[in-house]
Specification:
188 residues, alpha+beta, 3 domains, two-stranded antiparallel ribbon, 6 helices, 8 strands, 33% helix
């Protein structure tokens, strides 16, 4: 035993120093130990709570327990319902999707007219799956009038698409090149 006994601040008993959890060293390099012994740290009191279903008091196993038993949870908990992705889409949202689909077709037609086939507009590859990408992300300017315009769309292979999401400076070059910072603002 190094350092002799230490008194716990909670139970007030003297215990060997190894019964206290070691903390990271301080700036002077000396290791420090917790004021409470390991036993007192583990025995944190959990207060009684009321069951969300039947209202009876019970001791929860952890903070996530809301029901006194599995039977009570099954009886009172509502089953998970899957949401339909576009079931309650607003008219504005439906219009935006329709505009995006229309401009995506126009963009693809322009690329075919220019090159004779579809290709990634960044790396020029034709052997990878292609995705239409918003240069200024939908999450950055939701509801903006020019969000789904063809000036804000680019056809990318899956690798370049991931690269655009991970590398903002690369995307910034296209934003400046196309003048999108004038359309969407300088904070893009």
């Amino acid at each position: 035993m190094i350092g002799g006994p230490k008194t716990c601040t909670k139970c007030k008993r003297q215990k060997p120093i190894d019964q206290f959890r070691l903390l990271p060293p301080t700036t002077d390099g000396k290791p420090k130990r917790k004021a409470q012994c390991k036993e007192c740290e583990r025995s944190k009191k959990v207060s009684q709570t009321r069951c969300k279903g039947c209202g009876t008091p019970f001791m929860p196993f952890n903070s996530l327990n809301k029901y006194c038993s599995v039977k009570c949870r099954e009886k009172h908990d509502k089953p998970f319902k899957e949401k339909k992705p576009f079931s309650k889409l607003s008219e504005k949202g439906k219009k935006g999707i329709a505009e995006f689909e229309k401009n995506k077709k126009i963009l693809k037609a322009q690329i075919i007219e220019e090159h004779g086939h579809l290709l990634c507009q960044r790396c020029k590859r034709v052997d990878r799956p292609l995705e239409t990408h918003h240069i200024v992300f939908r999450s950055e300017r939701p509801g903006h009038l020019m969000l789904h315009d063809k000036i804000n769309l680019i056809l990318l292979c899956d690798e370049c698409h991931d690269l655009f999401h991970d590398n903002k400076p690369l995307r910034t070059l296209i934003v400046v090149e196309r003048g999108l910072h004038f359309v969407f603002g300088l904070a893009v």
